[in-house]
Amino acid sequence: MSANTSPHVAVLGAGAVGCYFGGMLARAGVPVTLIGRARHVDAVQADGLFLDGLRFQERIRVSATTDASAARDADIVLFCVKTVDTESAAKLPGPDSLVVSLQNGVDNVARIRSVTGVEAIPAVVYVAAAMSAPGRVKHSGRGDLVIGDIWENERLRRSLPAIAGMFERAEVPCRVSDNVEGELWTKMIINCAYNAISALGRAKYAALVRDRLTRDLMQQVTEEAITVARAGGVRLPDVDLMEAVWQIGDAMAEATSSTAQDIARGNRTEIDSLNGYIVRRGGELGVPTPANRTLHALVKLLEVANT
Fold it and tell me: In whole angstroms, what is the distance from residue 61 CA to residue 135 CA?
């Protein structure tokens, strides 16, 4: 893929994250097809995608469909399905598509590979976005990506600058990292600190970091997750991860977590790939994770109550 061409991009799983990044690309002139649920697709087909952003409010004309086979002919597939659907959706992109996983958790690209043999590009996503109505995305914080190659795949490695450039031209900051595994773990650790507590407390991020008791719990969750990562040999970035957790509360003060949004809509959450993953991995490594275990159990109880 040349940095000077506009590849066809399909967004598989066009919820809030997919619509935000797909919408920004379409706004910059990249040919994009959103693949999502009928109520959102119908609204986009009728009136375009409305991006209610931090810097602009704009209606963007973009192709949209409920037909997942539209992913087969795309040059790039932004893989934005929920982690519970990773394996079932992994077979949808074409064999020649570059697949970029914009998902929570740390093991999605391995799961995609286990099903299809496709070596996807992991992306670390930092954005506060929500579907405020069919065909409407409310953007309330950040909106940047980190990508990298964990497979030592020459084709993927060569494609990274062009993919980053495509996003940068669309006003989406995108950094190429030589330690994307560590970046993925950093994001998951932050998610473990915020997602479940935001859902259980029905609270925005700013409220979590202002409360002393909540901060204490967030610190315990973070320390457990860091211990699990290090026990598993993950090379975490050389930053103060606790400080990174608090900074997210400032940068995304008005955000509520994706877990909170899922609970509010009666959907299954991704908690098994967040605090639940820390619990499972901690068990494998002999690392106690009581705070993460409690949050995982309580969110799972909420899921049951929603059904």
Answer: 11
Per DSSP, the residues of 197-221 read HHHHHT--HHHHHH-HHHHHHHHHH
Q: Torsion angle of alpha carbons 17, 207, 251, 187, nearest 10°? A: -60
Helices 275-285/180-201 angle, 10° precision: 120
Domain for residue 1, yes or no?
A: no
Measured at the CA of 18, the angle between CA 96 and CA 93, to 5 degrees, comes to 20
Predicted confidence (pLDDT) per residue in 253-274, tens digit: 999 999 999 999 899 999 999 9
Judgement on whether residues 213 and 237 belong to the same structural domain of the protein: yes
pTM score: 0.93
If asked whether residues 164 and 277 sit together in one domain, one would say no
Is the Cβ–Cβ distance between 90 and 113 less than 8 Å?
no
Query: Which amino acid does the sequence have at 8?
Result: H
160 token code pair = 């990274």
Weakly modelled stretches of the chain, pLDDT under 50: 2-3
- Residue 77 makes CB contacts below 8 A (sequence gap 6+) with 9, 10, 11, 12, 71, 92, 93, 97, 98, 99, 100
